[in-house]
Amino acid sequence: MAISKRKKFLVKHASWLLMIVLLVFWEFICRALQVPQFLFPAPTAVLEAGIARWEIISMHALQTLYTTLVGFAIAVAFGLLVGMAVGSSPLVYRALYPMMVGFNSIPKVAFVPVLVVWFGIGTVPAILTAFLISFFPVLVNVATGLSTLEPELEDVLRSMGASKLDILRKVGLPRTMPYFFASLKVAITLAFVGSVISETVASNLGIGYLMMAASSSMDMALVFAGLIVIGAMGVGMYELFALTEKRFTGWANRGSGGVA
Amino acid sequence: MEQVRFEQVSLAYDEGGPLAIQDISLSVAENEFIAVVGPSGCGKSTLMKLVSGLTEPTEGYVYVGGRQVAGPQKCIGMAFQASNLLPWRTTLDNVMLPLEIVQPYRSQMRRQRKAFEARCRDLLARVGLAGNEDKFPWELSGGMQQRASICRALIHKPKLLMLDEPFGALDAFTKEELWIMLQELWQEEPFTVILVTHDLREATFLADTVYVLSKGPGQLVARKAIEQARPRKLEWTYTDDFARDVHELREHIGRIRES
Ligand SMILES: Nc1ncnc2c1ncn2[C@@H]1O[C@H](COP(=O)(O)OP(=O)(O)OP(=O)(O)O)[C@@H](O)[C@H]1O
Ligand SMILES: [Mg+2]
Q1: Where do the TM regions start and end (chain A) (predicted)?
Q2: Residue A186 and which of A210, B59, B134, B217 are 20 to 30 A apart at CA?
Q3: For residue B20, how far is its CA from the centre of ligand 1 (angstroms)?
């Protein structure tokens, strides 16, 4: 009994436990080897910096959260619309898909200078970079969900006189929801990558900028504090969408019945 | 009255490619129950697609209800070997689906939702699914899913019901139970049925007329009327009479194999 209880406890809190172990290890290494602060600060130093300058950090973090969420929202709307078009029309698929794949292979950091020329530095390039980097998974997943509709099910509906729109509304979209929510989890983390990249290169606001500025003044503790804040925001958003996914598409995970 | 009519119909899926079915002529009377049997790949499912207007014949004509088929039909019931129930809908909502799509129910849905629900519950009760209305498909057994699938195919009272090996994945007992169920539904409120099956006993037991298709390209090689009074009982399947009919069909299939 006691053993199984301990195991359950371990499984439940595995992620926290691992993090604590790693932090302790990190602290230990830094102290034992006496690594200089400006190269690799110990967790306690990072925490200290974080608390001491939480006002600055939270201001920049909010900016990053804002650009990320706006970019992400645009990406979701865009990905959903284009994904629907690609998934339900073979013609659009043929025409658009290769271009989308090609576009997605371009490192988005290469776009930032272009965006800066067009929109100046600051919020807009960050939003757009977040959008550009995160719409693709949404698009692909929505398209996949729609285009993998079982042919027999489609036959059943069509022989009832269902229009394309009917099929999309009654079957296509609900069926695509699990794919869609799964893609949101990927997209939101990518959106953070996008906005931070853009802020690092072209902004005077946001965590990306903060880290850039801090590292040029050798303030490694602040850089690490920034890194941790981004990571935490990413995990928070991911969990939020994982929860939403569970709520809306529970049917896809229960039993093996699935879409047989 | 004639419900379905094939006039020398041939179909090749790819232009100039091999024929899936060849030169098929047949006619199904209104409220007749026909079965189509034949070896795998002989074009049985193709035949159903032609009737429902999901594919067009390469040659010949298909008529449904006296009119030539052009494009998907408006009001046909279909069920397949896989139940194809929507996993995010309860059994009741799955059966409601056609009423949300087919006219005139569709436009009455708002006002008459309660009445339609009652109707679905009645039909579900008729096939022995009372009490399972609010379960999701994965909570039902294979046989129950198939019952629900047949309810979905019938709820909008189609003139034509098409079944493509609907009992193919079920065990022998459940299968026989569902034969009886289908016969009852059909007798109560007749509709035309086209049943595609591999099971010669099933075809003999259920159909008024059995058509045998040859190996691809599918051609009609036999048409056999089953002269047995309704309602047919399961006991009948253990008589020599029944065995003789099944045997005769088997002979036709056997001959196809040899040639
Ligand atoms: N969508 C399609 N495109 C091209 N060829 C097809 C298509 N559907 C069926 N065929 C071909 O047409 C022929 C008849 O197929 P069909 O599905 O009608 O056979 P079936 O009698 O229903 O077989 P089974 O009993 O195994 O279900 C086969 O040779 C098959 O390869
Ligand atoms: Mg078939």
Answers
A1: 65-87, 179-201, 221-241
A2: A210
A3: 7
Of all residues in chain B, the one with the smallest CA distance to A166 is B101
Which ligand is nearest to the Cα of residue B216, counting in written order?
A: 1
What three-state secondary structure class fits B53? coil
Candidates A155, A171, A251; nearest CB to B52: A155
* Other Cβ atoms closer than 10 A to B166: 27
Give me the sign of the Cα torsion angle B256, B257, B258, B259. positive
The domain that contains A107 carries what CATH number? 1.10.3720.10
Alpha carbon of B173 to those of A130, B180, B216: distances in Å? 59, 11, 32
Structure tokens at B65: 């209800």
Determine the CATH number of domain B1-75+159-228: 3.40.50.300
Q: Say how far apart CA A14 and CA B243 lie, in whole Å.
A: 66
Q: Kindly state whether residues A109 and A164 are assigned to the same domain.
A: yes
Question: Ligand 1, atom 6: nearest CA belongs to which residue?
Answer: B13
CB contact under 8 A, A159 and B100: no
List pLDDT tens digits, range B116-127: 999 999 999 988
- Domain-located, residue A257: no
Domain extent at residue A116? 53-251
Residue pair A219/A56 in contact by the 8 Å Cβ criterion: no
Q: In this predicted model, what pLDDT tens digit does every residue of B91-111 receive, in sequence order?
A: 999 999 999 998 888 898 889
**260 residues of chain A, pLDDT tens digit each:** 567 888 888 888 898 999 999 999 999 999 999 888 888 888 998 999 889 989 999 999 999 999 999 999 999 999 999 999 998 888 998 998 889 889 889 998 888 999 999 999 889 999 999 999 999 999 999 999 998 888 889 888 988 888 889 999 999 999 999 999 999 999 999 999 999 999 998 888 999 999 999 999 988 999 999 999 999 999 999 999 999 888 888 777 764 433 33
Q: Do A257 and B136 touch (CB under 8 A)?
A: yes
Is B79 in contact with B166 (CB distance < 8 Å)?
yes
Q: Based on the structure, what is the number of domains in chain A? A: 2
Terminal Cα-to-Cα distance of chain B (whole angstroms): 37
Residue B42 in contact with ligand 1 by CB distance below 6 A:
yes
Does A82 share its domain with A116? yes
The pTM score is: 0.81
Q: Is the Cβ pair B83, A260 closer than 8 Å?
A: yes
Query: Residue A168 has what DSSP assignment?
Result: I
